[in-house]
Design brief:
The protein is α/β, with parallel strands linked by helices. It has two domains: 3-66; 76-270, Rossmann fold. It has helices at residues 3-16, 22-34, 38-43, 51-65, 70-74, 98-107, 123-131, 143-155, 196-199, 204-207, 215-227, 241-247; strands at 76-79, 82-85, 113-117, 135-140, 160-164, 176-181, 228-237, 252-258, 264-270. The strands form two sheets. Strands 5-4-3-6-7-9-8 form a seven-stranded mixed β-sheet. A two-stranded antiparallel sheet has the order 1-2. Strand 4 (135-140), helix 8 (143-155) and strand 5 (160-164) form a beta-alpha-beta unit. Helix 1 packs across helix 2 (22-34). The longest helix is centred in the first third of the chain and has 15 residues, at 51-65. 39% of the residues are buried. The structure holds S-adenosylmethionine. S-adenosylmethionine is lined by residues 91, 93, 97, 118-121, 123-124, 140-142, 145, 166-167, 182-184, 205-206, 216.
Length: 273
Amino acid sequence: MTIRTALSQGYKILEDAGVPAARLTAEVLLMHAVQQERSWLYAHSTDELKEVWWIHYGRYLHERVKGKPTQHITGHQEFYGRDFRVTKDVLIPRPETEHVIETALAHMHTGDCVLDLGTGSGCIAITLALESKSTVFATDISRAALDVAVDNAHRLQAKVQFAAGDLGTAFADATFDIVVSNPPYVALGDRASLQIEVREHDPALALFGGDDGLEVYRCLIPEAARLLKPSGLLVMELGEADAVREMLAGWSGIEIANDLAGIPRVVVARKPA
Ligand SMILES: C[S@@+](CC[C@H](N)C(=O)[O-])C[C@H]1O[C@@H](n2cnc3c(N)ncnc32)[C@H](O)[C@@H]1O
């Protein structure tokens, strides 16, 4: 079997199983099996697929058809133009979260002290550290997630100080110019309606915010008020905009930015001076 035939067979298997972006997924899985870039696949389209490649590729196709996300098969996800390692212990960074980066960068100043609360893979903290001249700290309640974040920071040569803890407890004695967070915001009752890729493969700790999806915001907002300097800024990804806006009563300069689908996705609020 040639590379080209393997690609078209993989595409057919994925499409028949209803996997979205079947052609792109077949390419990514074959690239992972042969450990080569996309350009190599096309330059070698008439080459024979080695047996070992076919074995790996077949297994990846089977796993993807069964609902395992492509990122958990390859162990990688791109975020803000950089390659992040991902495992079952961290949320796969989402494109929507790039709006959190854009919003935070638009409000940041040289030398700011920034805390990423609930860092997961480290995608927000590492990106902010690499895109700005700020001092970045990050925390997560999951030590397993933090191990992945530390590894990503090392691979991407980002200077971020990590510490494990519930909310901001690991940095209880510090104060920050900006607290940024993408907290878990799915309501427990919505679990059954999630795609299998999310329900079965993203960590529950990264997804669910209690019965109404707002439980972490209820703790995070007062915690951020404690951690922020006077007039410091809170930047959060949103699940439910209206409810979170109500929780921010007393904060000033509240702005809500939409994502590309027009859904309210990021809130910025300033702690009262
Ligand atoms: C939605 S994920 C976001 C991960 C990453 N920041 C991103 O945007 O891809 C939420 C993260 O918050 C962490 N988390 C949940 N509850 C927490 C808590 N009480 N204190 C600290 N971190 C928490 C989870 O372990 C998870 O890594």
